[in-house]
Amino acid sequence: MSKKVAVVTGANKGIGFSIVQGLCKAGYAGDIILTARNEKLGQEAVGKLKSEGLNNVLFHRLDICDQTSSEELRKFLEKNYGGLDVLINNAGIAFKAAATEPFGEQAEVTMRTNFWGTLWVSKALLPLLRPNARVVNVSSFVSKRSLDKCSPELQAKFRNPAISEEELCGLMGEFVVAAQKGDHEAKGWPNSAYGTTKIGVTVLSRIQAAVLTQTRAADGILLNACCPGWVRTDMAGPKATKSPEEGAETPVYLAMLPTGAPAPHGQLVWDKAVQEW
């Protein structure tokens, strides 16, 4: 029951797959649960890693948009490990620039996965965190770029260190409604569904870290948001500047922060450096 365990969401390909690979190669001393919505693709990914001699990887199905799926993973972890040591919330989506779906639909679908999905997994799994656990929420540099395009009023709300999870959820809902009505820019929002959802992920990370500091200060848990960079994946396309392996470097670094490290915590990190929010 005391065996260490890490969970990586959305890990059958791209950055998620490379994060699992990177944890293995960094010598993670425990089991790594590779999760994906599609069982066949997830099992194939595990098989590929095992063929590379990386044998401490297991598959568990997880659809982050289905709260029942997160609860099933929680029960599995409780039964088999009695806790959780590393959580990397990597799963996410982005519509292509040439997507023809209405912006309101893009906003709703992207928000459901990137923000609400991350929140639902966190609600299910953060209570399992053991002392010295590490949590990494994969955000994006686009969150900072999109924040800078928000109205001064919205920027102040998102930068407020006292913002609550309830307030943040309300703001994310307001963006989707405004996007569906077509007046999001008039109301001070950026014209990026993906960027706005990642503002949500970055601010959620700051809130979660603050709660951990308040409730479990002595446990040495570190939780951060990170940007992998512009990575050559199905999502970002072939012109991106980083390989998936390079994109995995910062998430793996944050997941492997040594016991006793006081920081970073509650930060947005890319290229292993804390960024100003």
How would you describe what is shown here?
- By secondary structure, this protein is an alpha/beta fold.
- The protein has ten helices and eight strands.
- It has helices at about 15-25, 40-50, 65-80, 105-125, 140-150, 150-160, 165-180, 195-215, 245, 250-255, and strands at about 5-10, 30-35, 55-60, 85-90, 130-140, 220-225, 270, 275.
- An eight-stranded mixed β-sheet has the order 3-2-1-4-5-6-7-8, with helices on both faces.
- Helix 1 (about 15-25) crosses helix 10 (about 250-255) and helix 7 runs antiparallel to helix 8.
- The longest helix has 23 residues, at about 105-125.
- The chain is globular and about 55 Å long.
- About 45% of the residues are buried.
- The model has no long low-confidence stretch (mean pLDDT about 95).
The percent range for strand residues is 15-25%
User: What is the rounded Rg?
Assistant: 18 Å
- Number of β-strand runs: 8
Q: Identify the strand order in the major beta sheet.
A: 3-2-1-4-5-6-7-8
Helical content band: 40-55%
Distance N to C terminus:
39 Å
Question: How are the elements arranged and paired?
Answer:
Elements: E1 5-8, H1 14-25, E2 31-36, H2 39-51, E3 57-61, H3 67-80, E4 84-89, H4 103-125, E5 129-138, H5 141-148, H6 152-159, H7 165-181, H8 193-215, E6 222-227, H9 244-247, H10 249-255, E7 268-270, E8 273-275
Parallel strand pairs: 1-2, 1-4, 2-3, 4-5, 5-6, 6-7
Antiparallel strand pairs: 7-8
Helix pairs in contact: 1-10, 3-4, 4-7, 4-8, 5-8, 7-8
